[in-house]
Amino acid sequence: MATTEGNKSQDSGIAEMEELPVPHNIKISNITCDSFKISWDMDSKSKDRITHYFIDLNKKENKNSNKFKHKDVPTKLVAKAVPLPMTVRGHWFLSPRTEYTVAVQTASKQVDGDYVVSEWSEIIEFCTADYSKVHLTQLLEKAEVIAGRMLKLSVFYRNQHKEYFDYIREHHGNAMQPSVKDNSGSHGSPISGKLEGIFFSCNTEFNTGKPPQDSPYGRYRYEIAAEKLFNPNTNLYFGDFYCMYTAYHYVILVIAPVGSPGDEFCKQRLPQLNIKDNKFLTCDEEDGVMVYHHAQDVILEVIYTDPVDLSLGTVAEITGHQLMSLSTANAKKDPSCKTCNISVGR
């Protein structure tokens, strides 16, 4: 495998022959979460002898990776010599939002089945893209299948420690500020590490119709009437669908005031939902009153993209337990779950 520029192949059964042109000036383009196009320049001498290209593709080493973990197996692709640029596609060896190195050599297949090859090209680095709207729509459709029936809700709520609310009052003029979403959920999610928002819950207990008394996120709960955050002046987007090696699943939704920076960010990247008619969270008017429903069989994580003043709701201590084990902070998605994965990089 290539590790430095000009390394010669050590593969058995492959002869070396300097006459084949060495690829140079490699260009990577049209990058998606599980494909890219590659092209390069090469001298015209012996060009007509080229029958195949060898592409050496490797995940870039992460300095912080676990040294005891098995290393990813390098991928050597053998492709027929097609006109450039050539498309490389495959969710079994390309993951979204991942850094790779790639090197190329030209090859000529001989009558006996062996190859003569050029020297390796220089090594190029690139990073695959996030899920596109097409991929997210596939996730959305899978989430719809298990969302279940709709239950009424009246409030959104956010649990934190007492110190958090004290800090908001003292340093932020009583307004909770959006912060960058962590890396929980699907690895290809376009909102992880990019979208700024405030995390809210909205699930209710089946028997009471009220928020559960337990929480993974702190003993103090801020509650705000649903219509203060979610109404006809806001847009609703589907953000992600995942599980953490558990039987229950999470759906991330984004609520963004129309025309806000958060709304513009989501409009470009996420599938938009009809606020009156979708499988997860609805807002409709009945007899002049706004009525709200949420899906029963998934846990909704709602991100609101603007600041929220504490005076719009109330803060009180919960009577239940703080269940830290249920926290989804930076939680990794189960890549083997057939319910919430799609056939692209995980």
Characteristic terms for this protein:
single chain; 6-stranded mixed sheet; 346 residues; 4 helices; mainly beta; Immunoglobulin-like; 2 domains
- The H-and-E topology, N to C, reads as EEEEEEEEEHEEHEEEEHEEHEEEEEE
The tally of beta strands, per DSSP, is 23
DSSP summary: helix tally: 4
Largest sheet geometry: 6 strands, mixed
Q: Determine the N-to-C terminus distance.
A: 25 Å
Describe the model.
It is elongated, with a radius of gyration of 26 Å. It contains four helices and 23 strands. It has two domains: 24-128, Immunoglobulin-like (Sandwich), CATH 2.60.40.10; 133-317, no CATH class. The two termini are 25 Å apart. The longest helix is centred in the middle third of the chain and has 14 residues, at 133-146. The chain has 346 residues and is mostly beta strands. The strands form six sheets. Strands 1, 4, 5, 7, 8 and 9 form a six-stranded mixed beta sheet that branches. Residues 1-13 and 65-71 have low confidence and may be disordered.
Q: Can you give me a brief rundown of this structure?
A:
This is Phytanoyl-CoA hydroxylase-interacting protein-like isoform X3. This protein is mainly beta.
